[in-house]
Amino acid sequence: MIFEGLSDKLQGAFGKLKSKGKLTESDIKTAMREVKLALLEADVNFKVVKEFILKVQERCVGSEVMQSLTPGQQIVKIVNEELTGLMGDVQSKVNISPKPPTILLMVGLQGAGKTTASGKLGNYFKKQGKRPLLVGCDVYRPAAIKQLQVVGEKVDIPVFSMGDKESPVDIAKAGVAHASKNGNDIVIIDTAGRLHIDENLMDELKSIKKEVMPQEILLVVDSMTGQDAVNVAESFNETLGIDGVILTKLDGDTRGGAALSIKAVTGKPIKFVGSGEKLDDIEPFHPERMASRILGMGDVLSLIEKAQETLDLEKAKELEAKIRKQEMDFEDFLGQLEQIQNMGPLDKIIGMIPGMGNIKDQLGDVDVDGKEMRRTKAIIQSMTVYERRNPSILNASRKKRIAKGSGTSVQEVNRLIKQFNEMKKMMKMFTGAQKGMKKRGGLGGLPFFK
Prior knowledge:
The structure is a single chain. The chain has an eight-stranded mixed sheet with strand order 3-2-4-1-5-6-7-8, sandwiched between helices. By secondary structure, the chain is of the alpha/beta class. It contains 21 helices and eight strands. Strand 5 (216-222), helix 10 and strand 6 (244-248) form a beta-alpha-beta unit. Helix 3 (46-60) packs antiparallel against helix 5 and helix 8 packs parallel to helix 9. It has three domains: 4-87, Four Helix Bundle (Hemerythrin (Met), subunit A) (Up-down Bundle), CATH 1.20.120.140; 102-299, P-loop containing nucleotide triphosphate hydrolases (Rossmann fold), CATH 3.40.50; 308-449, 434 Repressor (Amino-terminal Domain) (Orthogonal Bundle), CATH 1.10.260.30.
């Protein structure tokens, strides 16, 4: 989980403060020492940590905390505000040109994930109603253009390329001209990277910048490289001038030092974060929401947005009608599982719920890694369509075949059927209670069955 180590340590430090009715300066200094160590262990830049602790400590020993009725909560509020400020206060959006096309130049070192990030970004803008075009300017890395074409095909976005014999500057210019001619309002230029920052790389990028005059130069960095990511951002900004950063592989970085350091060191905001392997696993970076998640306070707004984006409301209405009539079958159940999976990993979703930061400690045996859900799907998918729609026909021989097809046991198939039947009974009880309450003019019914 993102920031897992840092989040656990910070919540541990503040938990001690919350249990105290009054705080002394000594209590605050002890807590700040733990916060400092937690940030350094998370690979946050040393200078950034030093300035952050000074700011927080100054505010914590002031009257707003010492005279507060709940000093522990007041300190968490201050840390939340300062963490948000560290990452940029408010969301920084991409600058869209009033006259299309908007040109986005993707830069970064080799291996940071530029090509995948280009596809993800294109997919993000496509969902916003834009008509993006991907332009392949990496003529050096073997099969780089082919990779971009494969990515473009997966998200149904056109890719402009001229092979690997032409100059990247000429390809970029031709790509922009192609976009203007064909009504593409977003141009995403995927450029070459190197294993390290060198003069040739920067000269080429400067030439592309001069010729196409992009609205935004977005630096793609691998968050798992920690302080190296911050150093790369600093070098690119000094030499080329960047407008923002896309942090990739944030889901694999439990420390999060790069996310907390980049804005403070370079002055340039993080605009997007890559949070998974799928091509829709990219999200705008909201400093205030990220700070809230780090402190275990959840991120309800992102959770709502994710639900609105992925859940099919029409299917939900159909399912509600079936539940009312007790007609829900395994087809419906499978559809619901798939919708939940589309929202992303379960631990990520639960991490957005306030108070559920320490997910593994609090949830015990809950299926946070999704293994149980995948096993359930395998069992249902091993049924025929007729069996899914008519679970009552599942006899011993059918169960044996389903178990073999799903790589599970007959006992596991029986357990799923039993759980499914119990769930249907419980839903029947709810609908019965709903009718009874309406007859008695009671509570107006359960909200789900209005």
